[in-house]
Amino acid sequence: MAGNISNYQIGSMIDRAYKDTSTRKVPKYFAVGINQVNTIGKTATGLDVQVPIYNGTVNDDGSNTLTGSSAGDNSTDNTTTYKQGAGVTDATAQNLIKDDSNVLATWTITLTNNIDTTKPFSLWLYVQDSEVLAKISEYKIKLATDSSNYYEFNTTTLVTGWNYITSNKVNVEDLTEIGTVGTISSLIIDITTNNATDEFSAGEVVYDLLRQWSSSDLYKEFESGFPSTNLTNLEAQFRCKLGTILANGFLLNSFAIFDEDYNYMSGDKFNDSYSKSDKDILTFNAYDRDKGNCI
Known about the structure:
By secondary structure, this protein is mostly beta strands. The chain is built from 2 helices and 21 strands. It has 2 domains: 4-53 and 216-289, no CATH class; 58-212, Galactose-binding lectin (Jelly Rolls). The protein has helices spanning 7-18, 130-135, and strands at 4-5, 27-34, 49-50, 57-60, 67-70, 72-78, 93-98, 104-115, 121-127, 136-146, 149-153, 161-166, 176-178, 184-193, 205-212, 220-221, 228-230, 235-242, 251-259, 264-275, 282-289. A hairpin with a 4-residue loop joins β19 (251-259) and β20 (264-275). The longest helix has 12 residues, at 7-18. 38% of the residues are buried.
């Protein structure tokens, strides 16, 4: 693939070519993303939704029962619809069951690993079809000390199928704080439906895999020996590889290159998305080529 070069990279080329002592660093890392809508242009500073390549920390792997309250019933195991990723091998998610007693359904779980407020978070929420989606008017994710003290995250953009619910590059401590949050040892999921009589049966709404990551988990170095240069053809090649244990569970549709200081240099949106699983090895060959624009 030939990525779209950024203004930052153009500046880096000029800096390294014409200064006695360069202040810009060389390309070193690549990253991948999902839900990239627009072509990545010169003024971009990165990918829309950059996903962790490495495992990070699993706060809950989706194999444990969530306790229901209000119209939420206790969750049940789903071993058919679940998400890979983060090195998890349990192949289990949780059916979020709702009865007809209230518009609000709540599910709570004590986490295996407490939330680190200095890192972002993500989880997966599956909605079976448009009929189920039409029942949902609001949902909230609460990373909680208890039911009165928590950081809150919600969005209006749910779709059918798997939804990647994430603060992206925003740390938990920068989300909306309700009350006074201490140690975050619980996850609370609130879903409000249009009518109290709206119900969810097993498989209609599914939760899986709460995780966090460090910024370094978002990047991987190029393969050994790259970038390589061809001065005859005036091109540089970057070879980037995702092995079977990396970036699993994501429908990848974008790619970017960063320098040694993690500054965005170039990137591209794929024509076709790639569903990355633990059966796949993906290798990206990216090029910077002269297009004859020099004067």
